[in-house]
Amino acid sequence: QLVESGGGLVQAGGSLGLSCAPSGSAFRLGAMGWYRQAPGKQRELVAHITRIGDANYGDSVKGRFSISIDNGYKAAYLQMNDLQPEDTAVYYCHAVLTPLGAENPNTYWGQGTQVTVSS
Description:
About 0% of the residues lie in helices and about 60% in strands. It contains no helices and eleven strands. Strand 9 (about 90-100) and strand 10 form a beta hairpin.
């Protein structure tokens, strides 16, 4: 299970942060990230990062959003700057985790966090 926090309401040009951490510690972290889905639109990649720090971003957020990972706390953070109304969406945390003792990873999704940007 993934525990998400952050998000909320902000004016255009403002900043928000999101965090996500798996509950428990009996797993090996593979990668984490966020996807978002606006009403009437498909879910799209926001940012993704591997446990060694390789990150990639959706085209619409490059240069404005920054993702980081803390392997010690097994958590990921998304800093969102210069937010625009088109960033309004539900943001879903995503993680690839391998339970201890297992060979193959599993994919997990958070419950989603609303981010609303007013113009």
